[in-house]
Amino acid sequence: MDIYYFDYVATTMVDEKTLQIYKDVSQKYFMNPQSNAKVNKLVNDCKIKIIDLLNLNNDYEVIFTSSATEANNLAILGRFKNSKEKKHFITTKIEHPSVIETFNELIRLGHEVDFITPDEFGIVSKQEVLNKIKKNTALVSIMSVNNELGTIQPVNEIFQQIKALNNNILTMCDYVQAVGKIKIDFENVDLGTFSSHKIYGTKGLGVLIKRKKINMEQIIYGSKTSLVPGTKSVADQVVFVNVFKKAIENYEKNNEIIKKNQQYFLNNLNKSQVKINGKNPIGLISLTLNTTANSQTIVEYLEEKKIYISTKASCSQKLNKPSHVLKAIGLNSEQMDKTIRISFSIKTTKNEIDYLVNNLNFVLEKL
Ligand code: PLP
Fold first, then answer.
1. Could you say which residues of the chain have pLDDT below 50?
2. How far is CA 286 from the centre of its chain?
3. How far apart are CA 237 and CA 78, in angstroms?
4. DSSP state at residue 134
5. Kind and range of the H or E element at 367?
6. What does the alpha-carbon distance between residue 69 and residue 310 come to, in Å, rounded to a whole number?
7. Rounded to whole angstroms, how far apart are CA atoms 19 and 17?
8. Residues annotated catalytic, as ranges
């Protein structure tokens, strides 16, 4: 590769084989699934494969969306935007904006939301979540792997207890950064979301998996024949199934490779000049640097060397606003301004890490 890519958490590249699948399906199955039985079967087969890969039973269904952002919006708003009764919701302060902002919309609609503060490593306490449960709590949404810290939330442990307390409370998990890195366990989960472009699939395809019994309404209006109206890309769906299969089937091997890469990086980094945020992260390492230069300058300096990292989540980087995640774990504004995110994948090589470390150690010494 002629670039040194360390921003896999933002997005991933599509390989030739995947592009070929996209091309073949686009050419052979270009017809609309609603008017063509073969294409319709292909879409249904995709959905069945996803359910099988997650070992789910017939209680669950797959809804394709244009992104995980849309899937998160749909899961929350599709169920509750027209709820007449005032409901209570629980989520965390470190969710992706597509979850936080959707809950903010529910607040504007008159509902109540508790945003749980994690500890200094970005881990949410089970007890704190349980303490917030009320009689009218309708949904608890907690992400699996955080996209700015790499920390893994004890989602199943928390959801198991919630279900034991009140089986009517819905549980939702944003699995976007978890797929292909850890086991996806749906046992106590009613709603789960995924994104294709984070796992070497094409951009523009998200997935919501929901329990069939959860009634939802459209959040984008159009033909009433589908919860998500609009003509879908069947090629993107077939691509998703392929990359999802690889991610799910190889998560243990991938987890080992990614952790080895992370450890190799840390072993060689000049650690006296950095604070590592997050605890036992998977997929990324968040570092607060002891430099005079801020993270934006460092990112730009590294980019000149063809090294791609980021200051924080790609969606908030452009806004030039402090990261809500780093703020939630207690970093002050100077620390937030000096924090970078480096993400690793199964494709990362030792040579790439050596090149990154050499340049980063230079930055730590000189900038
Ligand atoms: N959830 C998490 C944890 C993410 O990291 C992202 C993307 O950064 C999303 C949701 C949104 O995914 P998409 O880009 O498919 O909208």
1. none
2. 16
3. 22
4. -
5. none
6. 20
7. 5
8. 315
Q: 274 to each of 20, 150, 225, 347, 364, how far by Cα in Å?
A: 43, 17, 54, 25, 8
Q: Which of 198, 199, 239, 243 to mutate to test the pocket of ligand 1 (most atoms within 8 A of CB)?
A: 198
According to the model, what pLDDT value does residue 314 have?
A: 52
φ/ψ (deg, to 5) at 223: -50, 135
Name the pairing type of β-strands 88-92 and 112-116: parallel
Q: Is the dihedral of CA 44, 47, 52, 58 positive or negative?
A: negative
DSSP 8-state symbol, 313 = -
- pLDDT attached to residue 366: 83
Q: What is the pLDDT of residue 321?
A: 80
Q: What is the DSSP letter of 323?
A: -
pLDDT of residue 334: 93
In DSSP terms, 291 is beta-bridged to none
Q: Is residue 176 within 8 Å of residue 153, measured between CB atoms?
A: no
Tokens of 367: 């900038």
pLDDT for res 322: 87
* Cα(4) to centroid(ligand 1), Å: 22
Report residues whose beta carbon is within 6 angstroms of any ligand 1 atom: 67-69, 96, 98, 143, 147, 174, 176-177, 195, 206, 315
The confidence score (pLDDT) of residue 318 equals: 57
